[in-house]
Amino acid sequence: MYEQFRLRVKGRDAAGNKFNVTTILENIGGGGLYVLLDRRVELGVPLSLFVSFSTLPPGGDVHAPRLCARGRVVRAEARPGGLCGVAVSFTRHRFF
To answer: Using an 8 Å Cβ cutoff, are 93 and 50 in contact?
Structure first.
């Protein structure tokens, strides 16, 4: 079992529409992360990412570590339920 952390993702979808969604982080490593989105995105598209490493409701722990990052989509795959699995490689990141 593992903790689920909230992740906010901002960018443009495959249709060119801007989006700003909150979802759950699936996996993270030193060079990037993997997330499921409710929309399709194209390879190479830049995304802005904000992760709160807290399991409390939003605003519940102002002292939890946070990650602010920018990255590029390096893999986008159709997943069951109309979701899109997205792997993002960090181009910039900062913990605070």
So the answer is: no
In 25-45, which positions are buried (b, 16+ CB within 10 angstroms) versus exposed (e)?
A: bbebeeebbebbbebebeeeb
Domain spans of the chain, in order of start: 6-95
Q: Which residue has the tokens 């060079």?
A: 31
- pLDDT (tens digit per residue) in 74-85: 999 999 999 999
pTM, two decimals, is 0.88
Cα–Cα distance between 34 and 95 in angstroms, integer? 18
Q: How many Å from the N-terminal Cα to the C-terminal Cα in the chain?
A: 26
Residue pLDDT, tens place only, 6-26: 899 999 999 999 999 999 999
Q: 6-95 has which fold?
A: Pnp Oxidase; Chain A (2.30.110)
Query: Alpha-carbon distance 73 to 54, whole Å?
Result: 25
